[in-house]
Amino acid sequence: MSATGNPVMALRGVCAALGARPVLRGIDLEVVGGEVVALLGANGSGKSTTVRAAVGQVPLTGGELELFGKPLRRFRQWRRVGYVPQRSTATAGVPATVREVVSAGRLARRGLRPLGRADRTAVARALDLVGLADRAGDSVDELSGGQHQRVLIARALAGEPELLIMDEPLAGVDLASQQILADALSEEVSRGSSVLLVLHELGPLAPVIDRTVVLRSGRVERVEHPEQLHDLACHPLDAAGRLPGAAEAPKIETGLLT
Ligand SMILES: Nc1ncnc2c1ncn2[C@@H]1O[C@H](COP(=O)(O)OP(=O)(O)OP(=O)(O)O)[C@@H](O)[C@H]1O
User: Fold this and answer.
1) pTM (2 decimals)?
2) What residue stretches are annotated with the ABC transporter domain (predicted)?
């Protein structure tokens, strides 16, 4: 992976409240160009609120947030950002095909112009990346929950974002499809994209992730290299039943963060 050192996203001392409840209490978080960062933490630690704040859906009560070097309030280049919300049913009941939903991911680039060749190519590529090319003509209502999630990921990928933000993209996605998504992310990163993901387990994504940031009660508790995490899915125990290197570094029990 080839991180460039220029932050594509920077949160400094970010605070936010939901209703009367202070939820983010001074988050410092950077994603640099070409980097894949996983945001971990227990239920309610503020992961979703952090990414929703980053895409302007939750107003800040303090701190600073920049996208591509611009303060959020002046940032207009939303076509550079792809966002996959936490498992949503945004397209449920909508009489649209898989291809039509994924094509909506081109809107920020093409506006209301009809789909051109570049749009169609990007949509076909995105469908292919998530393994749904053969379902392109089906109604989204005929899909399972996990397939639906993959459609939403394809919609974000179709916009060819430079920064992809995904909130629990693996929720309800089977292991084979998680591997497909890991390959799709690898491909995006090799094209220079940066990624911020909310996860509960790294699973098949572990090899793609450069850095993990653990939240607790609306603050960054730890920043780790994924190899320092205790994630049984990606760090099998040794013959003695210990994690490799267990004595050197305290491990984060990601399974217990859920
Ligand atoms: N609409 C709301 N109004 C008030 N408080 C809220 C609202 N939505 C979430 N919260 C609170 O904000 C805190 C952070 O929620 P958030 O969804 O960011 O956590 P999370 O780390 O993403 O959790 P999970 O792993 O369960 O998805 C929680 O304590 C939650 O109860």
Assistant:
1) 0.83
2) 9-242
